[in-house]
Amino acid sequence: MKKILTFLFLGYFFIANAQDNNKVKEFFWGANDAYKKITSIPEKYKNESAVEIIKYEDYDFHKFGKSVTFTSSYRKRIKLLDQAAVTEFSEFSFEKDGAVGIKIIKPSGKEVEIDIEKEAKIVDNYKKIAVSGLEIGDIIDFYSQYVSNSYSIEAFGFDPVESTLGSTYPIMNYKLIFQTENDFFVNFNTYNGAPKLKEIPTKKGNERKYELEAQDIPKNDFPRWFLPLVELPCYKFQVFFARSGKFEERAEAFLPEKESIVKSVVSKEDIFNFYNTKFFPNGDIDVINDFLKGKTFDSQEDKVKAVYYFTRHQFYTRYVEAFVIDEAKIMYPFDLYGYNPTFFTKEQPFINYFMQFLKKNRIDYDIIVSTGRENGPIKDILIQSNTKILLKIYTENPIYFGLFTPYSSPEMFAYEIENTDAYALKVSKNRKVDDIESIKLPESTYKDNVSKVTTNITLASDFNTINVAKTSSLYGHNKEFEQESKILFYDYVNEDYEKYGTKPLLDMVSNKKKKEQYKKEYEALIKKIKDNKNEKFKTEAEQEYGIKLDKHELVIKNNGRFGKNDPLTYDEKFIITNSLIKKAGPNYILEIGKFISSQVDIEDKESKRTNNIYSIFPRSYEYTINLDIPEGYSVAGLEKLNVTVENVTGSFKTVAEVKNNKLSIVTAKCYYHSYEPNANWSKMIEFLDASYQFSQEKILLKKN
To answer: Residue 66: its pLDDT value, please?
Structure first.
């Protein structure tokens, strides 16, 4: 397994510097290395795969005149206790421009330093290094340092860092060093029992140094359906550079009052003060008024939804074709849209524009500030980029929505923020934000997020070939992943052109000769995209069934882009040859369970769990399998296909019957909640194991 060491903060303003490797080596392994003589581990760790003797991180932010320099340093010293660990640390991948060091310490005390320049191979801008000679009982000690500079920059927000202290191995010693100076504003806090950051005195008044230390950090398995930053000791920080007060005011960050203060808490009042002046009705809505002319609606809710879908096209999908054509270098298309066209890609201008429509139509609303549950609760919000902004519209049935995507709906919002605490910025009658309150966002149910799949199976007369025809209809959040995967951009672009009577991009080209040329190039591009996509569809289907497929076809019947109850529907046809069926004397055995697609296989090592369970969202899957029973045969083994397992966490139910020489199997698998306490893990395993076991079931086609 590869170990990949990457460092954050690589903003586009920054340029990597060549480094003095000898100085970097001295920094980590020199005379001041407090860990170089530590080679033993506590007795309690003797049965572990590996133990991290030291995990060290160092982040340094400084300015030199007009230059801003960021240095990120990282080191680990690990005792390898079994072959799995030896294999894992036998290959490394580092960023190409970083200074790197690797050495092996044998049980005898002998040190072997890897010649990086000799051993490294540059692949895709990474240094890839194979480490030979590693054995059980060895210690591997490695570091990497990355330095980046910016010039003539007045303000810059470095990428945030959010990390657990622990890893998949126990850690004996953990240390984080953090250094800044004037003009660098720091948000930093630790959570879930992690030690607090301590300030270390420095000799210069404008420089600041902080340290975080911890010992004896237990390992964590980081199991499936787990949010580490919610439960494990962790830290989060972000640094923002601003040379003067005016840049501080413009910062997209919850800045502390001054550089000497590390901001550790962002209060409700901080949220209000940051956002209250950012949101206000703004924009020319004449195009919306034109769209609404002559239209009537049964309710304000229907009107808002219609306007949402129209603006999604007017300020998003209408330009997608242009970006594709520009990227393919067919032509420069943006001049065709007139002066300064509007294309919404950020929350604030979109919210402000929609506020203008709501104001003019006297529809009440709030602005919701939330954060995905993977970040922890909103009360612990620290990093501004972790917020998600929604509008809550007070129509007959309140609706929530945020910045659109090609598939977004005003009836749905990001599942990551469902059922989480949030803040509502209250908007007064004069359409100004003037208050804030705590709220709880609603959650969808397993009945909202449904996949319905019907699979019709026909066996060839020689029993070597299985013909499969599937229809899949996906609702709610279940369709979101498949929309991204299955729908091509021109499908929804052309759909919107037709729906809203908009002129396609290339039809706006006035020069007839150039128009024909551009259209030919564009058609060739679309054909290439389709061919690649068809191969992708086939590969995905093969992964689903775990076998090779022949003559795979997939056709989108409905894009599912207009509401949670508007399904994404697609048909598939393919052939399975010499697989899933085998001869047994005069009879045949068919792996019928494979036709509900792959199921979660809970391994023995997963059976015990201390972490709570964070599933993506409540959801259900309904599969219907219809098999035409070959003439002269009957089905044996139906008793194994009738299963019912249900408890407070979820269910798996199947009903199988033979009627009119056709085997019909109806299955339903439900995840009732997005969260379960670890005490319920054994209950989840019950229905998960039942569904996996069903996927392994076979039937006997018995010769009459």
So the answer is: 78
| Residues 372 and 388 sit within 8 Å (Cβ to Cβ) | yes
Domain limit, last residue, from 394, 416, 440? 440
Residues 554 and 689 in one domain: yes
Q: How many domains does the chain have?
A: 3
- Closest C-alpha to 538, from 485, 580, 584: 485
Same domain, yes or no: 434 and 348: yes
Tokens standing for residue 583? 């001869």
Domain identity same for 81 and 194: yes
Query: Between 373 and 123, where is the model more confident?
Result: 373
pLDDT tens column, 619-670: 999 999 999 999 999 999 899 999 999 999 999 999 999 999 999 999 999 9
Q: Tell me the pLDDT tens digit for each residue of 336-366.
A: 998 888 899 899 999 999 999 999 999 999 9
- CA atoms in the 13 A half-sphere facing the CB of 122: 5
For Cα atoms 546, 571, 452, give the angle at the middle one, nearest 5 degrees. 80
Rounded CA Rg of the chain: 30
pLDDT tens string 17-74 = 445 788 899 999 999 999 999 999 999 999 999 999 999 999 999 988 778 889 999 9
Provide the pLDDT for residue 8. Answer: 34
- Bridge-based pairing state of the strands 121-123 and 568-577: unpaired
pLDDT above 90 (res 98): no
Sign of the four-CA dihedral 242, 248, 250, 251: positive
* 492 backbone φψ class: left, alpha, beta (φ>0; ψ -120 to 50): alpha
- Phi/psi region, residue 467 (left: phi>0; alpha: psi -120 to 50; beta: rest), is beta
- 1, 88 in Cβ contact below 8 A? yes
Give the DSSP letter of residue 417: G
Half-sphere exposure of 618 (CA within 13 A, CB side): 16
Q: What is the largest CA-CA distance in the chain?
A: 93
Question: What is the CB neighbour count within 10 angstroms for residue 310?
Answer: 18
DSSP state of 388: E
Contacts of 347 (CB under 8 A, 6+ apart): 388, 389, 402, 403
In angstroms, rounded to a whole number, what is the distance separating the alpha carbons of residues 508 and 595?
48
DSSP label at residue 132: -
Domain housing 244: 3-30+53-259
CB-CB contact of 165 with 174 (8 Å): yes
Query: Do 574 and 650 belong together in one domain?
Result: yes
Residues 610 and 694 in one domain: yes
User: Does the pLDDT of residue 435 top 90, yes or no?
Assistant: yes
A 10 A CB-CB count for 128 gives 17
- 369, 389 in Cβ contact below 8 A? yes
Place of tokens 């951009």: 489
Residues 238 and 320 both lie in one domain = no
> Do 419 and 553 share a domain, yes or no?
no
Indicate whether 377 and 467 sit together in one domain: no
Q: What share of the chain is helix, strand, coil (3-state, %, to 5)?
A: 30, 35, 35
- Please indicate, yes or no, if residue 679 is contained in any of the structural domains: yes
Question: Tokens 């003019």 map to which residue?
Answer: 360
Q: How far is CA 674 from the centre of its chain?
A: 16
pLDDT at 152: 63
- For residue 336, being part of any structural domain is answered with yes
Which CATH number goes with the domain that contains 141? 2.60.40.3140
